[in-house]
Fold this protein.
Amino acid sequence: MSDFLSVANLRSYYGQIQALHGIDFGLAEGSVTTLLGANGAGKTTTLRAICGMVRSTGKIEFDGRSLIGLSTEAIVKLGIAHVPQGRGTFTRMNVEENLQLGAITRPGKAAIASDIERMYALFPVLKERRLQQAGLLSGGEQQMLAVARALMLRPRLLLLDEPSFGLAPLVVRELFKTLTKINRDEKTTILVVEQNAQLALELANTAYVIETGQIVKSGPADEIANNEDIRKSYLGY
Amino acid sequence: MELLTNQVLAGIATGAIYACMALAVVMIYEAIDHLNFAQGEMAMFSTFIAWQFIEWGVPYWGAFAASVLISFIGGVIIERALFRPLATASILVQIAGFIALFYIINSSAGLIWDFSIKSFPSPFGSAPFLGSQLISDHQAGMFFVTLILLGLLYFFFRFTRIGLAMRAAATLPESARLVGINVGWMIALGWGLASAIGAVAGIMIAPVVFLEPNMMAGVLLYGFVGAVLGGLSSPAGAVAGGFMVGVLENLAGTYIPGVGNELKLPIALAMIVAVLVFRPTGLFGRPQVQRV
């Protein structure tokens, strides 16, 4: 099967330090995939490597095009949106400007304006705060804004780095419900990195478990969730 | 009372020039986190270019436009050729780069146009403004020109997509890349704009301070003071700071005994120190908060 995104023998480096030691995995179009693992396992680095934000070797192919060596902005223009760890909110700009920035590479004022309205329908709280400075939003609201900003690209692949981090359980539930909806209604392929394994496994179809820069287990999400050994040794719940 | 009004108005007029220089400084500071010490020299060179065009018989506003355009392109080229390669170098290397640029431009101007002091024409003349004795036509003219410039810049940064992209690139480069903005070019564009703003400031102040390679040294210093006073992280604050410095410098020179023209600069510098002691972020700046 030819994957929508396929990663093979991916090795990434921060200066002299090697963070990934040959990662292999693939995503099918329209799927939700999760990368699980402990702190420092290399989950975030994998996402950063896909977006060209860390020096990497190996193969990363998106819809048949190699991403290795492309600049981050060129990769984004291919339709890959990345919600980074810490959310990357433009804190000094208002909510609406943040959404505008998400679509900054797209032409067509009318289409962008209607997408902003779509985001307000998806996340009504953002509409209430549209002219507020984004830095003044709560953590959960900022996470919603970050997801909405990424969706403004109309991405074909959405990368999410720990969307549940620092959020109250109820807010997380709501956010993950919205992500499921986005995947179902818009066929957006999603790759989500999480420490909250239980939650991520509910959302995903496929799961990979990563440890010290290598994939150690993979399989359908429900299988991984039901495998006592994997749960105990890698996922800690 | 008339003396006070006179000094305040004259202060606002020169303050407009300081505001421009402060804004140029802040724009580059926001993008690369360093002060461009050569900002004034770049503006001086732009002024010489305008002067040269006028000498060649180009009408004043044509020379003005040509100089602003050339300055914009020159600013972009300086960033691409000199500061882009230095972007990841240590801070001392970058400062050395700025100082080198300062002397290269200063000496080149001296070499091309020599160091003699030249007069620079004003398109507004020096007659009293609207018949009043308070300020001259040129002072009023330079105030309105800079006001138009600041208005255009506000519109550009607030309401255009490229202005939005430039703000994003300057404040959060990594997030900007993740929405597809080419941050490198946005910074180069910022240099171009800062250089063009400097050109306007230089051309407007030249009839007052006269044209020579060191004409901008004092002006840039006041611009720095304005930027620090208003806050290096706030473009609008820097503009306000520039105006405040212009007015305060004039009032101090007039009303504090023994200050006069000679002590105006030390007063301005004392203002930097005072602001930094009591409000390190400037009057309108915000503290840099970093999540760790």
